[in-house]
């Protein structure tokens, strides 16, 4: 969203109190923001709140009815916006937009704009299910606008059901998808993420420090850019976004089977998971008792998933491997793995640094291609690095 001009429209629902936090998230993503508050929204939250956060004038119905000299707010804001985000969208707003009723500044601005529009309804679950509301939603979708269905859960009225505003992070992801280039549209992308676990006994296991953040960021970036994404992941400490198709696994063997099953139909595999290299030869039943001064554990190799993929890879399929290596050996080991595994690209990062790799929110990577090209992505958030990796994949022929 860096540099994207976003118009945030806030309607008069109780979920309006979440809009300032959403605005802050958009700012962190680099968006340039303007805000419209409806008359109903002002009953829940003041323009001053948003002006303090974004440092810009917040537009209200008063600006529409009595605009400053020389200013036509709905056309000016309509031209400003690359995307319009309405949060929360009330039943009244949906009805007004569906019939093209331009009596409010927000609806008039949408009608006067060529921007992409994302609408996030939030209301009582009976209201949401009412045929009149659903008919309005379908009509609005017919205009080419995107409507993000509300989530389920406890509502402000004390009842439970569909009607909650989705989490702010999910809304931001849908907005990113709305404005992103669809250069992976029509592509089936398979992504692996996180660690695997190889059990010693019922409670103990061998694993590693992988958080899965890099793999999930790649899956999310590919989804934003139009791909049909399947995410195969080991045990994670967080829940991936709900819009991703997920296949959870535990062991290296389970991940291998899942990858080979889904790779058959994939155009691109991003093998970002940190798969355990060894497992106990035999997992012990029950819990191992602490009654011996020493214990010997025989380890055997786990299956090499990328070598297995190499055996079944078809012309036109792209495979991207990942290598977590130590400083000076980074480039050498990455190149060896690139050739040995028959990869199209390999993404390598230095695990000796605290700000890259396992558990960190940032990463810095070196990308090597089969053609000999090298691309270095400087330190950035894993979300930004994921987008840059997809750019490299596109240059390698993986996009549209």
From TrEMBL:
Any Pfam family matching the protein: Flavoprotein
Requisite cofactors: FMN
SUPFAM superfamilies found in the cross-reference section: CoaB-like, Homo-oligomeric flavin-containing Cys decarboxylases, HFCD
Pathway: Cofactor biosynthesis; coenzyme A biosynthesis; CoA from (R)-pantothenate: step 2/5; Cofactor biosynthesis; coenzyme A biosynthesis; CoA from (R)-pantothenate: step 3/5
Reaction it catalyzes: N-[(R)-4-phosphopantothenoyl]-L-cysteine + H(+) = (R)-4'-phosphopantetheine + CO2; (R)-4'-phosphopantothenate + L-cysteine + CTP = N-[(R)-4-phosphopantothenoyl]-L-cysteine + CMP + diphosphate + H(+)
EC number: 4.1.1.36, 6.3.2.5
GO biological processes: coenzyme A biosynthetic process; pantothenate catabolic process
Cellular component terms (Gene Ontology): phosphopantothenoylcysteine decarboxylase complex
GO molecular function terms noted in the UniProt entry: FMN binding; phosphopantothenate--cysteine ligase activity; phosphopantothenoylcysteine decarboxylase activity
Gene3D superfamilies: CoaB-like, Flavin prenyltransferase-like
Keyword field: Decarboxylase, Flavoprotein, FMN, Ligase, Lyase
DNA/pantothenate metabolism flavoprotein C-terminal domain sequence ranges: 185-395
Domain Flavoprotein: 4-166
Highest taxon, organism lineage: Bacteria
General function of this protein: Catalyzes two steps in the biosynthesis of coenzyme A. In the first step cysteine is conjugated to 4'-phosphopantothenate to form 4-phosphopantothenoylcysteine, in the latter compound is decarboxylated to form 4'-phosphopantotheine.
HAMAP family: CoaBC
Family: In the N-terminal section; belongs to the HFCD (homo-oligomeric flavin containing Cys decarboxylase) superfamily. In the C-terminal section; belongs to the PPC synthetase family.
Protein name: Coenzyme A biosynthesis bifunctional protein CoaBC
Gene designation: coaBC
